[in-house]
Prior knowledge:
By secondary structure, the protein is mostly beta strands. The protein has one helix spanning 529-532; strands at 10-31, 34-53, 66-89, 93-116, 133-134, 138-157, 161-172, 181-192, 205-219, 231-238, 241-248, 251-252, 260-273, 278-297, 306-329, 333-350, 377-380, 383-386, 406-408, 423-426, 431-441, 444-454, 457-459, 510-512, 515-526, 539-553, 572-580. The protein has a 19-stranded mixed beta sheet that branches. The protein has a two-stranded antiparallel sheet with strand order 10-11.
Amino acid sequence: HFNPLWDINNAESRTETDRLLINVFGDWKIVKGLTYRLNASLSSRSVDSGSYLGINHTSGQNTQGKATVTRSANFDYLLENILTYSTEFKGGHSFDATLMQSVNYITWKSISNSATGFSNDDLSYHALASAVEHGVPTYELSERKMLSYLARARYNYKDRYLFTAAVRVDGSSVFGPNNKYGVFPSASFAWRANEESFMRDVEWISNLKLRASFGQVGNQGISPYTTLGLADKYMYEFGTYPMVGYLPDTSLPNPNLKWETSTSTNLGLDFGFFYGRIGGSLEFYNTDTSDLLVNKSLSESTGYKSQLVNMGRVNNKGVEVTLNLLPIKNKKIEWNVDLTFAKNWNKIVKIDGSVDENGKPKNDINNNWFIGEPMNVYYAYQFDGIWQLNDDIASSHMPDAKPGAIKIKDANGDGKLDDTDRVIMYRDPKWIGTLSTGISYWGFDLSAELYVSYGGTRFNSYLTDFNQGGDMTAKRNGVRRNYWTTNNPSNEAPAPNMIQAPAYITSLGYQDASFVRLRNVQIGYNFPQKLIKKAAMQSLRLYATFTNVWTYTKVIGYGPEQTPGSYPEPRTMLFGLNVSF
């Protein structure tokens, strides 16, 4: 017998189990001001999953059914030893120091088996052992270990002057044997100006705080065993016997891989005026990231396709502004408005130190990396319209083109079209911002958030790929295009071509990624206490929430933040009732 809710032609099951084996924490006072704290946790998570494509399924009928069973498990162990000393002095001085040591061990393992050939679908993948033919079992193991040390000291004078200094040492198993550890210092200072005696009589200033900080952080976001020379398994026959052979992985190992380090300087101002009616913050930051962990493309003549390396230096600087307004606040109505604005400037300062024949730093065109330009760019030909019947094509930079063909911009103005006419197109937005507001009146409340992303470029394969209707043959039910014809001299899309895709069709795929989105709206009503007390209720709220309400963009696809072909972003409506007694 089988569960009638299952589709025996495509049955799937998934069971997840979480176990908290150990969770210990505690504080012990050693002497006055000195405290020891222990944090220890040990947890595991296992997942059992099975899938079955039945005899009548399109993918299982040729094999008389196909079953797969997988079991995976995660194990996470964390131990922290923390020693803290704190004291206060006369006159409003206070000081504390912290020493910390931690160990973190994470392991993941998975085992899987598959089989084909079943007499019926009754037991789906539970009948794996009775299958006619069994696949080769697979087993995977991944381990990550982290050892950390921290020392921190803080000084506070009357909550007016605040100093912090710290140094952290982290060791990770994912790096090479000579570079497992990284040292990351930091320091910060804050001054509450409104606490000064000369500011206390300025009543319209409720908060004024200046902040400055400097620090380094490390990035270990790579997979384990990357620094080792890995091998891939291949099956072959030796006579009549199946054998297993191994070939090097397509990624060249790098035993000298080390921590990626980001060094940041931050200046900030927090302010509040008119008893909280106006508030916000202003942030300026500058971050240099060196020894970036990047996959560098290699010539396949080396036998490898890529290598994970520490390379170059990237600079990010920017400004972030937050403004909180409370225009109206009284017993009947309250209205707040919040504004945020963020702009980031990103550029590559150094790649690998190589220079060209003129002694200038050399760009890495294969990876679209250019000195002085952002890290995240496209490098391609730029669409410049469609060649028309009255254009002087013969004397142009594309003399072989025909009317109705794609025109590429002569970027360098030399009168010919070659690789040097490719242009850099920035993928990241120039700036982003949000406007959110909320208003409440006699139990009713309304809130909304508007998000704006301005600038940036997105490549849309729907406009260029044959299988997605962008090949210009006009044969498929793809994206609707304003094709060029002699009777319709369009300047948007080339003439249909029944034989092959037009030349330079990929230039049509780069679109302005700017968009404005009303991300969410919520409407609610809180019933008055006089009404709900009779029903022995403490609170009663009725509400409706709407997400992804409206979007304006020129991107042709399911959404400006979605990769073409991915699942569309849903527009949701949620109605709810909250009751407490």
